[in-house]
Amino acid sequence: MKFKLVQKNILLVLVVILLAIVPLLINPNAEYGGADGAAEELVTEIQPEYEPWFSPIWEPPSGEIESLLFALQAAIGTGFITYFIGYSIGKKKGSEGLAK
Amino acid sequence: MKKKRILYSSIITVFVLLLSPTYVFAMHVMEGFLPPAWAALWFALSIPVLIYGMKSIKKQTTNNPNLKMLLALCGAFAFVLSSLKLPSITGSCSHPTGVGLGAILFGPTATSILALIVLLFQALLLAHGGLSTLGANVFSMGIAGPIASFLIYKGLNKAGASKSVSIFSAAALGSLVTYIVTSIQLGLAFPTEAGVLAAIMKFVGIFAFTQLPLAISEGILTVVQPIGNI
């Protein structure tokens, strides 16, 4: 039972990885750029006179800093998720130990 | 069987998308890119739900303090997923919302608070989304998407679908609904000469195709996540 669950999860993760890799293989010359720029383009295409009335109060000074902050966001999330998994396993084992 | 169905539908989707290249697009409405009146309207619609969400979280965690950990897990999950800018078949990158799990476990109003936290982080530190468009983005990612996820999960569950199928559909379709609502928000604010509906369809056309593979990834990852812990 347990083994099957692990197998299923591995298969599911593989599908996700595949979904991320396939575009890169099929469309190797695409830009894969920040999408926000193109959204702005479409808005200005529809309404050329539109001027954004508010700009971000702070922007990451470079792509490096931006990736640092994105990595930080992922790390905070992952850190808690792994803590939660460990906590749950420990709790379960602890209560099983008490039952004996 | 279910695994196969998910796998097959992913493969079919990939081939469908192969034939339909489109533009590049992001999910959040960019800073300053909604006229003030529209920005204000979406704030007005979102704020009551956020207040209700705070109350809902308080109520659920007072009744059962153990739920705090699980709620934090849902927040952490949204943090991770929305940091993953995945390449899409259309040659651009976008990211999942990660709020489907929270919607299923805690309901859509509580999830609006989780979305608010993620959106604030991205608006303040990453110049992704924005403060002036925060109301609109909370509405699409924190309210409309989670409501869709919640209803789809409940509906499928009642119809007797398995847990995996219900969770997958709820998270994937919720993610798509978020993008459709974003399209509606942009289309309402920037109608083309052919009218509001034509503008919305234009935005929807772009969004739906770009997001489809990511919505599938999101659905799959949401299935992996809760199973691993129980």
From TrEMBL, chain A:
Pathway: Cofactor biosynthesis; adenosylcobalamin biosynthesis. The keyword Ion transport applies. InterPro entries: CbiN (IPR003705). It comes from the Bacteria. Pfam families: CbiN. Keywords: Cell membrane, Cobalamin biosynthesis, Cobalt, Cobalt transport, Ion transport, Membrane, Transmembrane, Transmembrane helix, Transport. It is found in: Cell membrane. The chain crosses the membrane at residues 9-26, 68-90. It is a multi-pass membrane protein. Forms an energy-coupling factor (ECF) transporter complex composed of an ATP-binding protein (A component, CbiO), a transmembrane protein (T component, CbiQ) and 2 possible substrate-capture proteins (S components, CbiM and CbiN) of unknown stoichimetry. Belongs to the CbiN family. Part of the energy-coupling factor (ECF) transporter complex CbiMNOQ involved in cobalt import. This is Cobalt transport protein CbiN. It comes from Alkaliphilus hydrothermalis.
UniProtKB/TrEMBL annotation, chain B:
Part of the energy-coupling factor (ECF) transporter complex CbiMNOQ involved in cobalt import. InterPro entries: CbiM, CbiM/NikMN. Keywords: Cell membrane, Cobalamin biosynthesis, Cobalt, Cobalt transport, Ion transport, Membrane, Signal, Transmembrane, Transmembrane helix, Transport. It is a multi-pass membrane protein. Its main location: membrane. The chain crosses the membrane at residues 36-54, 66-84, 104-127, 134-153, 165-182, 194-216. This is Cobalt transport protein CbiM. It holds the Pfam family CbiM. Forms an energy-coupling factor (ECF) transporter complex composed of an ATP-binding protein (A component, CbiO), a transmembrane protein (T component, CbiQ) and 2 possible substrate-capture proteins (S components, CbiM and CbiN) of unknown stoichimetry. Belongs to the CbiM family. The keyword Transcription does not apply. Pathway: Cofactor biosynthesis; adenosylcobalamin biosynthesis. It comes from Alkaliphilus hydrothermalis. It is found in: Cell membrane.
